[in-house]
User: Which sequence fits this backbone?
């Protein structure tokens, strides 16, 4: 991966802060969607940036941070993958300069005066930066391939299907020897955007079985084993026996990924299948001009439905303009074509489309 495009972007940023977003698409200092920088020299950008939130994009954030800091040696970027809920809370309290969240802020969560790090008259914006499928991960004795329809997945996590050789599972796994063993379903213990997206998928595709709707917190009246963070779920499924769980696909490469049977077609959690949903999903209505919160269309034909879009939540106007400058520079790289390609290589995520990259760029242009 070339570093000079990043350095070119931040150099343009330093010389003209107000034009950072515009410079992102202008030669010769472009590192924006489709751009390439030939600008020489080291970056003069400096400072410390704190991000907190979604553990799903941990691998992507590690790659983004490493590359950005290499190009900007006087900048320190910290990202704590403490979970989406923790990220939103930290951002609201002023403990993070941006939040990573696997769901956008809700209508009741936005508004002026609700975010300590923002100017008093400023609300926040949701900017999509990471797209990935949620894999239904499993570790079942003697089983290497598994196909489940949404109603069966809902039944397993609702606790109404409790044995691996249940007829509902056998019906979609002809020729597979399923053990007469109790299912251990693993869910997130912490508030999680991954949980929100997973439960939203179940409520949209199997509403007659999954009656709890979509939520960050796992329904309190349901049993199962819980674990903290994406890594905790993956570890629990890996170390357990006859287990099943849900996690960002990039974090669970060594586990089995169940195919989700939708309209008779078994779908694997691939980046391409995840991107297909985003391309068909409208923005949530009634939001500010540059808010890019999406209403995911999980019924798009041929698209893997269990998808998460992780957002960078930022201030419209920062109380500290220097922090705002760092946020714009860092996220400008993250959402650029180069940054998205870096994440795809490191985490297997689906790059933002060129159109969505352009919308994120325009939103960053508006941040002060």
Assistant:
């Amino acid at each position: 991966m070339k570093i000079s495009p990043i350095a070119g972007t931040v150099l343009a940023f330093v010389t003209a802060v107000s034009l950072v977003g515009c410079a992102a698409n202008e030669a010769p200092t472009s590192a924006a969607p489709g751009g390439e920088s030939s600008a020489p020299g080291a970056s003069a950008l400096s400072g410390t940036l704190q991000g907190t939130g979604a553990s799903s994009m941990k691998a992507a954030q590690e790659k983004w941070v490493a590359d950005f800091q290499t190009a900007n040696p006087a900048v320190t970027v910290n990202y704590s993958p403490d979970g989406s809920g923790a990220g939103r809370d930290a951002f609201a309290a002023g403990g993070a300069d941006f939040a990573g969240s696997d769901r956008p802020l809700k209508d009741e969560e936005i508004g002026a005066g609700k975010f300590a790090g923002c100017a008093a008259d400023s609300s926040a914006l949701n900017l999509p930066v990471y797209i990935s499928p949620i894999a239904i991960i499993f570790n079942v004795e003697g089983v290497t391939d598994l196909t489940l329809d949404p109603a069966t997945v809902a039944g397993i996590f609702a606790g109404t299907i409790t044995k691996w050789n249940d007829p509902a599972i056998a019906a979609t796994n002809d020729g597979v020897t399923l053990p007469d063993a109790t299912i251990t379903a693993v869910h997130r213990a912490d508030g999680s955007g991954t949980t929100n997206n997973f439960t939203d998928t179940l409520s949209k595709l199997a509403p007659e079985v999954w009656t709890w709707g979509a939520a960050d917190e796992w329904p309190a009246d349901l049993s199962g084993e819980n674990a903290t963070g994406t890594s905790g779920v993956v570890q629990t499924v890996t170390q357990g026996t006859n287990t099943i769980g849900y996690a960002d696909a990039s974090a669970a490469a060594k586990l089995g990924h169940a195919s989700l049977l939708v309209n008779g077609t078994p779908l694997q959690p691939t980046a391409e299948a995840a991107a297909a949903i985003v391309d068909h999903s409208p923005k949530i209505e009634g939001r500010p001009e540059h808010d890019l919160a999406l209403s995911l269309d999980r019924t798009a034909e041929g698209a893997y439905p269990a998808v998460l879009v992780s957002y960078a939540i930022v201030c419209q106007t920062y109380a500290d303009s220097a922090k705002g400058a760092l946020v714009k520079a860092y996220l400008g790289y993250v959402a650029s074509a180069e940054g998205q390609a870096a994440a795809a290589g490191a985490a297997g995520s689906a790059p933002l489309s060129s159109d969505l990259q352009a919308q994120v760029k325009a939103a960053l242009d508006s941040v002060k």
DSSP finds twelve helices and twelve strands in the chain. Confidence is low (pLDDT under 50) at residues 1-42. The chain has two domains: 4-132+277-295+309-366, 133-274. The domain at 4-132+277-295+309-366 is CATH 3.40.190.10 (D-Maltodextrin-Binding Protein; domain 2).
